[in-house]
């Protein structure tokens, strides 16, 4: 690597926050970024902490941030239900207003780890929207668990082609919510940057903005989709599992630096998170969990609203009661192919530019082998592979051909 480029890269990784992510990507290119990350991420040391028996914990008192949504269920319920204590950890789970705050507090090391949207560790590592710093995501929190909600004024507008001029809320730019909404409307012939307006709104403010008429709908995490129905303001147009069944939503993430400096603590924390996620995956535990995470210091929502989300028996706002047991599910495995799909959407819509080494970045950030090791150690089944293809709105996503996938779409930005 050229010394000037290498020097600029290192400054970008650890300082000079004014360097815009587009300048950074154009300067070094996605492939060079991936190669540099491979040298900066202490993956071998991190993996050793997971594969070996844990020694004394370097740090037992931890701050973990969460945004109050049902996608954070394992991270939240691990606190009142004793999963952190089981692994020798004294954790404070800290309610956080939104994703920009969660990102910034993580970058500033106010949080040791955090509940993040699955695109966030990729974006933070690449410097998309923030100063670049290597982050790792060894566990997904939930799959599915989102919905498109429309205001009751739009009961007669179920065809997305009728949504031209609509304003939608999403919780963050680097979110599955944003990328799934863009994908969905584009597949119906709308340009998400021209035909609709997409606004970033913190999840707890979604329903109030819908009530006030500031937005026509939102693609949001629960329980706010169900809360809109509960308050008779909106209806569920569709669950996002109808776009991509089994799509990732939220995750557990930390900085590579934290994992490197506290390998035993990282290993214990990952075990607690995976254990809690697997417990959450059992439908028989969902009512108990709903009561545990409902209080003010956690979700601050009626138990009945949370139960409708977690159990999959819910009113849809259209006069029906739906039975969808996997409306939200919990699976900790961070498939590399999930990361590749997210990166294709970041490239498609102009959030990253230049050559992107999709597979290498996926391997460096989504630590699937760590999840495999811990899942098996705890007695859970883990996939043998780390990547697979998906069906998304009837189209096959081949994770080995990401650029061809992007080129297959008529509507794109890059």
Give a structural overview.
The protein contains 18 helices and 16 strands. Helix 3 (43-51) crosses helix 12. It is of the alpha/beta class and 414 residues long. It has two domains: 3-142 and 249-281 and 331-407, Periplasmic binding protein-like II (D-Maltodextrin-Binding Protein, domain 2); 144-247, Periplasmic binding protein-like II (D-Maltodextrin-Binding Protein, domain 2, 3-Layer(aba) Sandwich), CATH 3.40.190. Helices cover 41% and strands 17% of the residues. The strands form five sheets. It has a five-stranded mixed β-sheet, with helices on both faces. A five-stranded mixed β-sheet has the order 8-7-9-6-10, with helices on both faces.
Proportion in β-strands = 15-25%
Total count of domains: 2
CATH C-level label of the largest domain: Alpha Beta
**Secondary structure category:** alpha/beta
The shape is globular
CATH homology group of the largest domain:
Periplasmic binding protein-like II
Strands across the major sheet, in which order?
Answer: 2-1-3-11-4
Number of DSSP E strands:
16
CATH topology of the largest domain: D-Maltodextrin-Binding Protein, domain 2
Helix content: 40-55%
What CATH architecture of the largest domain do you see? Answer: 3-Layer(aba) Sandwich
- DSSP summary: helix tally: 18
Instruction: State the distance separating the first and last CA atoms.
Output: 26 Å
Concise synopsis of the structure shown:
The chain is α/β, with parallel strands linked by helices and about 425 residues long.
